Amino acid sequence: MKNKLIIFDCFGVIFGEIAPVFFSRHFKGDEAVTLKDKYFIPADLGQITRDELFTLMANELNMDKQAILREWEELIKLNTDMPPVIEALGKKYDIALLSNAPEGFVEKLMKEYNLEPLFDKIFISSALKLAKPDPEIYRHCVSAFGKEYDEIYMIDDNIKNLEVLPDLGIKGVHFTSIENMLIDLGENV
Questions:
Q1: Beta-carbon neighbour count of residue 162 at 10 Å?
Q2: Which end of the chain is less crowded, N or C, counting CB atoms within 10 A of the terminal residue's CB?
Q3: Are residues 92 and 69 in the same domain?
C-alpha cells in the first residue's frame, strides 16, 4: 500500500459553498466575485477578525449584521456522504483539512458536526496568515506531518487553488463529486 497524504478543502467539498452563494444572491456577476474577494481575502489571511468581517460587510453593503449572520448560518450544508468517505480513507492514509476561512468559523463547524476526529491535522488560512493558492500554505501543510509520501493529493472545488500544485509535487483533484474524487485518488471505499 502506498504512503499517501490526502488534503481536503472544506467549503465546496465537505460543506457547500457559503460566501459565493451569499454574494451571488445579493449582487450580479463580477460584482459578487469582486465583493467576496474584497471582504474575504483579508479575513482569510487573518488580517481582520470574523466579527470585523461581518461588521464591514453590514456597513458597506447597507445590510443588517444579524440578518447577514442568520443567512450565513442557513447556508451551512454538510455534504453528509463525505464524512464516511474521509473516515474510510483515514484508516489507510494521513488526512488533513486545509481551508481558507476567517478565524473561528471552520473550527466551530468541525466541533458542531464532530468532524475533528476525521483529520490528523487541520490547517486554517487565517491562523497561518497564508491562503490558498499561495504555495507556502501547501508546503506548510505537508511539512507539518514530518514524513515523506509516495503521493500527496489536494482535493478542492476551486481550480485556481490547484494550479500551483504540480510544481510542489502535489496532485490536484478538482472536486465535482465523491465518485469522481475516488476515481482520481485511485480508491474504492
A1: 21
A2: N
A3: no
